[in-house]
Write a structure and sequence with these properties.
The complex is a heterodimer of chains A (about 190) and B (about 170).
Chain A: H1 2-23, E1 28-34, E2 45-53, E3 59-65, E4 74-78, E5 82-88, E6 93-102, E7 106-110, E8 114-118, E9 126-129, E10 134-138, H2 141-148, H3 152-188
Antiparallel strand pairs in A: 1-2, 2-6, 3-5, 3-8, 4-6, 7-10, 8-9
Chain B: H1 2-24, E1 32-39, E2 49-58, E3 68-72, E4 75-78, E5 80-82, E6 87-94, E7 102-110, H2 111-122, E8 133-139, H3 150-173
Antiparallel strand pairs in B: 1-2, 2-6, 3-4, 3-7, 5-6, 7-8
Helix pairs in contact in B: 1-2
Classes of the chains: A alpha+beta (about 190), B alpha+beta (about 170).
Chain lengths: ~190, ~170
């Protein structure tokens, strides 16, 4: 009887302890978004991370690591891919941004970043993953230029090409007109 | 008689100093900064203007762990660190229309100064604490696209040439 009640008591108290532990645990939600309107090979790609602590207590030793942009496919332009925040308070957030450059066009699947943090003091770190941006099509640079760059050089070439077909008749007319005008003017006087 | 009492006072003072150092991190004495800057160049490549400052900090007291806080737009942002504690990154975003352009100066506080600033804010004091160092860089602004499209200019030139020819033809034929 005594041992059963003792067992029940320990079970209930453990349940209570684990509940208390959940109440004191930090919980991080991570969003990973692409800020580009268009992804173009050879042009900058901006990735933004936001980490929200929705738990009631602080998260410590927060480490964000993003290995989804391989050196073979992307060139790192700015920003660190593996970073650490010592402390993210309850109901607060932090953000991080990196810039990479895709090296070749085509479809790419952009996957999640990994975050590890200590949710409860003294316990081992917890793993979490960011949202996944998903599949994107990286446009070849020529296609992007055709749509968006200013085409001054192309227009200059066009002008140079049309100049003979407009210039030649104009020159002929002008030469004959100037001779005609020269004949009229002396007659008047 | 006074010996143990004095040592207790000294010990408690030391503890207070140690605890205050631990709450927000150590301090950096005579900081030297080398930084790499990136700011968004074009609106098509990013829907918001992004500022990234990657820097290394050389402190004469060589602290093991240093937490830095930067003051951006009247609020404090935590500066992230690389996993080997050697490089720091400060990054923030702003909408294109509200993003500051030109020379931008950011005040950076080490853990100790930040703690003091927060304490002052909490107790309602208005005493200003100086930043430990500043990050300065230039943002050229975002390129929103050419203000004069080449197609428009080409069309104008063609229109002008045609108009002159038409007018002269009418003058000849009249």
């Amino acid at each position: 009887m005594m041992s059963v009640s003792l067992l029940l008591l320990t079970i209930i108290s453990l349940f209570g302890i684990s509940n208390a532990a959940d109440e004191k645990s930090a919980r991080l939600l991570i969003s990973k978004t692409i800020l580009n309107e268009a992804l173009v090979s050879g042009k900058d790609l901006t990735i933004h991370y936001e980490i929200f602590n929705v738990g009631p207590s602080s998260a410590t030793g927060v480490e964000l690591s993003d290995t989804s942009f391989r050196i073979s496919d992307y060139k790192h332009i700015s920003g660190l891919s593996k970073v650490r925040w010592e402390h993210i308070g309850a109901s607060s957030n932090v953000s991080h941004t990196i810039v990479v450059r895709p090296l070749s066009p085509g479809a790419q699947n952009i996957t999640s970043a990994h975050v590890s943090y200590i949710a409860i003091e003294g316990e081992p770190p917890v793993n979490a993953y960011s949202s996944e941006p998903g599949e994107y099509y990286i446009f070849p640079e020529r296609e992007y230029d055709r749509l968006h760059s200013s085409h001054w050089i192309e227009w200059a070439i066009f002008a140079a090409m049309t100049l003979p077909s407009i210039g030649m008749p104009f020159l002929l007319w002008y030469r004959s007109r100037s001779r005609y005008v020269d004949q009229i003017k002396p007659k008047k006087h | 008689m006074g010996g143990p009492i004095i040592s207790i006072i000294q010990l408690s003072f030391l503890l207070i100093v140690l605890v205050s150092h631990q709450t927000h991190g150590e301090q950096c004495v005579s900081p030297k900064v080398t930084s790499d800057i990136y700011t968004t160049p074009e609106t098509l490549l990013s829907t918001e203007t992004v500022y990234i400052v990657e820097f290394t900090l050389d402190c004469s007291n060589k602290p093991k762990e240093l937490n830095l806080y930067a003051k951006v737009d009247d609020s404090f942002i935590q500066v992230t660190k690389s996993l080997d504690n050697k490089r720091y990154q400060l990054s923030w975003t702003s909408s294109h229309s509200q993003a500051p352009v030109g020379l931008i100066t950011v005040d950076v506080y080490d853990g100790e100064t930040y703690g003091k600033v927060k304490q002052a804010v909490r107790s309602g004091e208005t005493s200003e604490y100086e930043a430990n160092f500043q990050l300065e860089f230039n943002h050229k602004g975002v390129w929103k696209g050419a203000w004069l499209k080449s197609e428009l200019l080409a069309l104008t030139v063609v229109g002008l040439v045609w108009f002159l020819a038409y007018r002269h033809k009418n003058y000849i034929c009249s």
